């Protein structure tokens, strides 16, 4: 079976296992479809990689996997210095991916404002994988029973807003208030219709961070062993059991046939702790104490980290 891989602005066709030389780069055709881990389902017919920097398994190729809000995206913008640093990082043959609790819709809307290239996007805390052209590759849903359980949970009566994520789409539960960030105005969905959808992530937003943390702990106790609750900003996100940023990175690299020799992770909030502890983690300066402890190291910016590592 043939598969198309994107190389710069050119598409090349080949079969799995084939190597195609294009200029000074060798394109490795790795797989015709993603290889979803247990519980994940593939949603792509082809995988588009920006190039094959890591397919050969070179030890000197590194991955920089960054959280978005508060890490790459600060004060509603990506700094020119960070953009240049990421471009330089990739120009050296390394990989760059964004790992976020956001859904694909709002993430892509903000990314479209900046000349930022990436090798993959891992959305919804690891439940949805997009390739280098933002095409969906695979996803890990909550399961219809868990989705319904969460819609019926008493947390719904106490949160300010409830966001629902299905594929790349985002909805706000009609019976709750508008989403916390007024910049985004997703469509509303009534509870009765929502009960027929198997969501990737259900997010409960609060006006106060302390309330989101308290309700997140309560919800985690209620769904223990059946789902995963992660808190960041003033939101409690719920995904399928075993889904998180660290496990998502490992699955994404396998699905996209990428094999960097070293993985650096950067983040600033509670849902980043897992990936900061699992890999070579750096917390953003000013992060909470537990986030700093999970990483063991800190950085003032992505640009500072890139300058330190190159």
Descriptive overview:
The chain is an alpha/beta fold and 310 residues long. It has two domains: 54-138 and 245-309, Rossmann fold (3-Layer(aba) Sandwich), CATH 3.40.50.1000; 144-240, Hypothetical Protein, Haloacid Dehalogenase-like Hydrolase, Chain: A, domain 2. The protein has nine helices and 19 strands. The strands form four sheets. The chain has a nine-stranded mixed β-sheet. The relative contact order is 0.16.
Shape: globular
Helix count from the secondary structure assignment: 9
Uncertain residue segments: 1-35
Classified in CATH, the superfamily of the largest domain is: HAD superfamily/HAD-like
Identify the CATH class of the largest domain: Alpha Beta
User: In which range does the helix fraction lie?
Assistant: 25-40%
What would you call the structural class?
Answer: alpha/beta
Provide the number of structural domains. 2
